[in-house]
Sequence to fold (66 residues):
Amino acid sequence: MQIMVNGQSRDVDDRATVAELLAELRLAEKPVAVEVNRQLVPKQCHGQHRLAGGDCVEIVTLVGGG
Fold:
């Protein structure tokens, strides 16, 4: 199915979860904030939150520096 991830179209499995998407993007072990359709998805819910066709996902990673 098609979803949008940070403004770019992406194909994912029909029953993909936020956690699976993060693993696919190699972000599973990094500190990130995830919104699906402008709703924050808490980290403890990433494994249960299933994505649907047309979802808009925003992923923000923390970057160190100064």
User: Anything to note?
Assistant: Strands lie at 2-5, 8-11, 32-36, 39-40, 56-61. The helical segments are 18-24.
